C-alpha cells in the first residue's frame, strides 16, 4: 500500500482500549468486533502485513458509516477518518466488486455529484409525488422486494416544490460586515433549495454580501468518502477555480458533509488548496462569529437539535448552532439522547446498506420523538431525509427544518 511507513504509524496509534465501541453505530447494532473501529483497524493491519484484501475485509470496511464518532471518543488521537478513507481508496484500486455492487455505485456516482442531473431528476419526481404514484408504489412493496436500494432512494426523497434560482449576487441588508460565497451543493440545491434561499436571506440580514457562482459543481465529498480520491480531486479543483476570483472573505457551507471535506482540501490536493480551505466555514460558524444584528422575533416552539455527524464529529461544530437557536425568543431547545450515534444517513450509506441504516434511523427517531419537541432541527440534507423517513415510520409525525430555516423564520417574523 502507498505511504507504508506513515500508514503503519497511524495504525499503531490504536491501543485497542475500546472507548470507541459504545459510539460506533455498527458495533452497537451487531456487537461484532470486526464491525468496530478497532476491529476494522486490525483488518487494515492484516491487509498491510499480508498484502491482500479479501471480500470479508471489504464487507467490514464497507459497513462503516464513516460517522467519525470514534474519532471524538478516542483518547489516543487515532486518525480513523484518514485510515478509513485511505483504505477505501485502496479497495477501489485493487478490489473487484460484484457486478450488482458496481452497477449500483455506478448509478449513484453518475447522478448524485451532478447538480444539473439531480435537478432533471427532481422535475419528474415532483410530478410523481403530486399524483400520489410514489405512495401507491410504496404500498405495493414491489420495489422493496425487487431492488431494496432503489426503494431506499424513493423513500428518502423529500416532498419537492417548484424552485426559483438564486441570483449571482445578493446585497447585505444595512451596513456590509462581510462578503461571503455560498456553496449551493448537489442534493441541497436540487432537493432542498429552500434551505439555500433561507441561508442567503439570513446572511443578508446579518450584513453579508452573498456571492453565488452559477457554475459551481460538486465539492467531491461523496467521492472522497467512498474511496474515489482522483474523482474527488477533480471536483475540488474545479470548485476552487469557480470561487478563486470572487474575492469573498468566507465560503459558507450549509451541508455538513460538504463542509467537512472542503475543510480538508489541503490534505486532498496539497498546499495549493490551503488558501481556499482557510476560508471555508459552516453557516452556523459565520453567523456565530458575526453576532446578531437582525432582530429576532419570537418563535413559541420546542425544538430538538440533532448533531449531524460531519458537523459535530468531523468539524467539531456543536456550540454555534445551539447558541443561534437559543438566541431566538420563545424557542425552547431540547437535547436528543444518544447524540453520538449516527442517524444512518452517512452520505450514500442508507442506499448501499438500507437495512442497518433503517435500524439506526428508527433508533434515532425514537430518541427524537421522546423529547416531545414539535420540530427536529439539523444541519445536513442527508440527515433531514433520513430522519424524516424514520419519523414518518414511527407514527409520530413532526416538522423538520434546517438551522437556518429556523433563524430565517424568526428574522422575518413568520411561523416556522
TrEMBL record:
<dbReference type="InterPro" id="IPR009051">
    <property type="entry name" value="Helical_ferredxn"/>
</dbReference>
<keyword id="KW-0004">4Fe-4S</keyword>
<keyword id="KW-0813">Transport</keyword>
<feature type="domain" description="4Fe-4S ferredoxin-type">
    <location>
        <begin position="54"/>
        <end position="86"/>
    </location>
</feature>
<dbReference type="InterPro" id="IPR017900">
    <property type="entry name" value="4Fe4S_Fe_S_CS"/>
</dbReference>
<dbReference type="InterPro" id="IPR017896">
    <property type="entry name" value="4Fe4S_Fe-S-bd"/>
</dbReference>
<comment type="function">
    <text>Component of a complex that catalyzes the oxidation of glycolate to glyoxylate.</text>
</comment>
<dbReference type="InterPro" id="IPR004017">
    <property type="entry name" value="Cys_rich_dom"/>
</dbReference>
<keyword id="KW-0479">Metal-binding</keyword>
<keyword id="KW-0249">Electron transport</keyword>
<protein>
    <recommendedName>
        <fullName>Glycolate oxidase iron-sulfur subunit</fullName>
        <ecNumber>1.1.99.14</ecNumber>
    </recommendedName>
</protein>
<dbReference type="InterPro" id="IPR012257">
    <property type="entry name" value="Glc_ox_4Fe-4S"/>
</dbReference>
<dbReference type="Pfam" id="PF02754">
    <property type="entry name" value="CCG"/>
</dbReference>
<keyword id="KW-0677">Repeat</keyword>
<keyword id="KW-0408">Iron</keyword>
<feature type="domain" description="4Fe-4S ferredoxin-type">
    <location>
        <begin position="4"/>
        <end position="34"/>
    </location>
</feature>
<dbReference type="Pfam" id="PF13183">
    <property type="entry name" value="Fer4_8"/>
</dbReference>
<keyword id="KW-0411">Iron-sulfur</keyword>
Amino acid at each position: 500500500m502507498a505511504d507504508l511507513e506513515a500508514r503503519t504509524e497511524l495504525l499503531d496509534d490504536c491501543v485497542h482500549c475500546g472507548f470507541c465501541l459504545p459510539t460506533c453505530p455498527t458495533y452497537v447494532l451487531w456487537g461484532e468486533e470486526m464491525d468496530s473501529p478497532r476491529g476494522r483497524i486490525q483488518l487494515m493491519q492484516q491487509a498491510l502485513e499480508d498484502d491482500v484484501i479479501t471480500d470479508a475485509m471489504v464487507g467490514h470496511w464497507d459497513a462503516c458509516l464513516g460517522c467519525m464518532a470514534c474519532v471524538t471518543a478516542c483518547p489516543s488521537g487515532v486518525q480513523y477518518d484518514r485510515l478509513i478513507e485511505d483504505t477505501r481508496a485502496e479497495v477501489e484500486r485493487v478490489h473487484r466488486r460484484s457486478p450488482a455492487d458496481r452497477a449500483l455505485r455506478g448509478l449513484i456516482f453518475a447522478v448524485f455529484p451532478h447538480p444539473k442531473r439531480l435537478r432533471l431528476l427532481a422535475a419528474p419526481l415532483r410530478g410523481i409525488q403530486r399524483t400520489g404514484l410514489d405512495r401507491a408504489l410504496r404500498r405495493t412493496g414491489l420495489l422493496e422486494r425487487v431492488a431494496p436500494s432503489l426503494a431506499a432512494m424513493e423513500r428518502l426523497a423529500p416532498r419537492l416544490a417548484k424552485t426559483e434560482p438564486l441570483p449571482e449576487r445578493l446585497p447585505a441588508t444595512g451596513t456590509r460586515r462581510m462578503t461571503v460565497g455560498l456553496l449551493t451543493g448537489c442534493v441541497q440545491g436540487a432537493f432542498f433549495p429552500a434551505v439555500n434561499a433561507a441561508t442567503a436571506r439570513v446572511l443578508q440580514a446579518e450584513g453579508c454580501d452573498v456571492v453565488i457562482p452559477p457554475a459551481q459543481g460538486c465539492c467531491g465529498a461523496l467521492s472522497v468518502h467512498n474511496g474515489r480520491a482522483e474523482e474527488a480531486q477533480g471536483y475540488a479543483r474545479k470548485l476552487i477555480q469557480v470561487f478563486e476570483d470572487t474575492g469573498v472573505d468566507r465560503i459558507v457551507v450549509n451541508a455538513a458533509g460538504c463542509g467537512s471535506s472542503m475543510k480538508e482540501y489541503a490534505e486532498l490536493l496539497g498546499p495549493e488548496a490551503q488558501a481556499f480551505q482557510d476560508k471555508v466555514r459552516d453557516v452556523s460558524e459565520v453567523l456565530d462569529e458575526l453576532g446578531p444584528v437582525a432582530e429576532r422575533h419570537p418563535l413559541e416552539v420546542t425544538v430538538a437539535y440533532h448533531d449531524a455527524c460531519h458537523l459535530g464529529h468531523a468539524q467539531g461544530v456543536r456550540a454555534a448552532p445551539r447558541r443561534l437557536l437559543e438566541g431566538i425568543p420563545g424557542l425552547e431547545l431540547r437535547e436528543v439522547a444518544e447524540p453520538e450515534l449516527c442517524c444512518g444517513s452517512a452520505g450514500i450509506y442508507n442506499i448501499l446498506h438500507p437495512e442497518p441504516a433503517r435500524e439506526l434511523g428508527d433508533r434515532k427517531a425514537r430518541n427524537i420523538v421522546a423529547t416531545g419537541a414539535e420540530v427536529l432541527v439539523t444541519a445536513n440534507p442527508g440527515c433531514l431525509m433520513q430522519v424524516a423517513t424514520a419519523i414518518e415510520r414511527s407514527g409520530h409525525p413532526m416538522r423538520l427544518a434546517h438551522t437556518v430555516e429556523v433563524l430565517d423564520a424568526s428574522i422575518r417574523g413568520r411561523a416556522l
